[in-house]
């Protein structure tokens, strides 16, 4: 056999591509079920249900800021868009 370096490279790239796909698939299958707490349905939070997400999020910080009445827990993930993670109940 007389290995053609060009063919070998193509095969290597194919293998790398397949390995990449497998890694992504494994990652997606392993992802835990969504478990972040949802936006509560209580007298405080129900008012935000009818609002547009972006509109509603303007109000969250008034209580959930560090100096507010319900500060976020320590180590809370980046909190840019509350409702992307804390989804509304149906
Ligand atoms: C008027 C003050 C106030 C505002 C405004 C407010 N919250 Fe809250 N939030 C609270 C308080 C107090 C608690 C803790 C008691 C409770 O669960 O209602 C809480 C709890 C939570 C919890 C945890 C619920 C749980 O199951 O433990 C989440 C998530 C949350 N708020 C998200 C939000 C988001 C997102 C917004 C903006 C759309 C928001 N809050 C606006 C006062 C507020
Ligand atoms: C990137 C996703 C993400 C974003 C964005 C985010 N959070 Fe959270 N939040 C979490 C996770 C994860 C926790 C850990 C506890 C849990 O499962 O709810 C948490 C916890 C909380 C808690 C405490 C819940 C408890 O255990 O009592 C509150 C209150 C809260 N977040 C409010 C907010 C508010 C208000 C915003 C917007 C300013 C926000 N979060 C944005 C992911 C997020």
Question: Strand tally, please?
Answer: 0
How many separate domains? Answer: 2
Largest sheet: none
Element order: H for helix, E for strand: HHH
Distinct ligands, ions and cofactors found in the model:
heme C
Q: Radius of gyration in whole Å, from Cα? A: 23 Å
Q: What class do helices, strands and sheet pairing give?
A: mainly alpha
Helix content: 40-55%
Could you give the distance between the termini?
A: 64 Å
Q: Count the helices. How many?
A: 3
Q: Which strand-content bin applies to the residues?
A: under 5%
Low-confidence segments: none
Give a written overview of the molecule.
It is built from three helices and no strands. It has 90 residues and is mostly helical. It has two domains: 1-31; 46-85, no CATH class. The longest helix has 26 residues, at 5-30. The radius of gyration is 23 Å and the shape is elongated. The N and C termini lie far apart (64 Å). 2% of the residues are buried.
């Amino acid at each position: 056999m007389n290995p053609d370096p060009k063919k070998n490279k193509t095969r290597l790239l194919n293998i790398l591509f397949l390995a990449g796909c497998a890694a992504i698939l494994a990652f997606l299958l392993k992802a835990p079920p969504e478990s972040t707490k949802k936006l509560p349905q209580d007298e405080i939070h129900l008012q935000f249900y009818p609002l547009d997400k972006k509109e509603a999020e303007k109000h969250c910080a008034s209580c959930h800021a560090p100096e507010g009445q319900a500060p976020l827990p320590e180590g809370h993930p980046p909190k840019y868009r509350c409702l992307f993670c804390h989804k509304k109940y149906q």
